[in-house]
Amino acid sequence: MTEARYNLSQSTDPEINSIAREILHQAFDIHYTYEACLKDPVSDTNKLLFRQDRELYGPQIQALQIDTAGTTSESEWNQAVVKLLTAEARSATFNDATSTTVTSVDWYSLFASRIDRIISDARNLKLKGISYTDLKVTQDTVKLL
Question: This protein's superkingdom (predicted)?
Fold first, then answer.
């Protein structure tokens, strides 16, 4: 998915966060991080199929959906999402063999916290009675202006 390869040996914390953000944006097919909570959550049917065959019915990069009914620690689906994002980050980064500095990033924890934040935002919107359709229409209208 990610074409660029990033040298972690020369990366700062803001650059690592930027890499994570780029991977999230590509995975959710969004331009801004806040748009992730506007995406339709994974269906109950898909979650049931996932329990039967994780490879065939699991989360897919560039069409990513999350389970807003449970946090990352509560949802097997969300754990699979985080593992998928972690694998993307690891394939997009490297440590320069000639560098004396080796940077280790806990991608799993980083993406788990990001997914949990998206879930929290989606739940807050639902509590306020704002539907995905309402926000999508508003967002599309703003783009037209």
Answer: Eukaryota
Do the Cβ atoms of 63 and 42 come closer than 8 Å?
Answer: no
Helices (H), the chain: 13-28, 44-52, 54-57, 76-92, 107-127, 132-144
pLDDT at position 95: 66
Q: DSSP string spanning 9-22?
A: GG--HHHHHHHHHH
Residue 109: half-sphere exposure toward Cβ, Cα within 13 Å: 4
Q: Are 84 and 128 in contact (CB under 8 A)?
A: no
112 vs 67: CA distance, rounded Å = 13
pLDDT tier, 100 (very low <50, low <70, confident <90, very high otherwise): low
7 three-state secondary structure:
strand
Tens of pLDDT, residues 41-74 = 999 999 999 999 999 999 998 889 999 998 889 9
Pairing of the two strands 6-7 and 93-94? parallel
